[in-house]
Design brief:
Blueprint lengths: L3 H23 L2 E5 L10 H8 L13 E4 L5 H11 L7 H9 L6 E2 L3 H10 L3 E6 L8 E6 L8
Parallel strand pairs: 2-3, 2-4
Antiparallel strand pairs: 1-4, 1-5
Length: 152
């Protein structure tokens, strides 16, 4: 039988952790491309191929340069779950196997601003940022989630 203290700890942890997990799950994101991508509409399947490094070139012939946020970043978790069907840590075995075959995972950048700078300055680049990130330099090819509460 649980003690009163363990019940209180469970309630406190649940009230702290669940809202942040719910916010992460509901977080809308925008997939952005840089100059030279040439494609302004992508499917989830195409994004999965790109971020798994199974599609390496745009239709224009330029090399695709995908970029991720760190694995612990809430937006990376939402992106991975939505597009790749798994959280980042579930893909570790996949990337070990791909590395064995000479395929490296997408670059990882520390912040959304770094992703924006990389994508806007790197031909063929693709990444993702919060759908609420206002920036006129961005070519948004897909938005996932409800971005209606963003003030632009």
């Amino acid at each position: 039988m649980p003690t009163l203290l363990s019940l209180l700890i469970s309630i406190v942890l649940g009230s702290v952790l669940l809202p942040s997990q719910a916010r992460a799950a509901d977080q809308a994101f925008a997939v952005i491309v840089g100059p030279g991508a040439g494609e302004l509409h992508l499917t989830r399947e195409t994004l999965s191929l790109i971020f798994r490094r199974k599609q390496n070139y745009w239709k224009s012939g330029s090399r695709i340069q995908p970029v991720n946020l760190p694995a612990a970043h809430p937006l990376r978790r939402v992106f991975s779950q939505s597009i790749l069907g798994h959280p980042p840590e579930a893909l570790e075995d996949y990337w070990r196997e791909m590395y064995f075959h000479g395929v490296l995972p997408p670059h990882v950048l520390a912040s959304e601003e770094a992703v924006i700078l990389f994508v806007t300055s790197t031909p063929g680049a693709i990444g993702y940022v919060s759908a609420c990130t206002p920036d006129r330099r961005l070519n948004v090819v897909m938005t996932i989630g409800d971005a209606s509460n963003c003030s632009r």
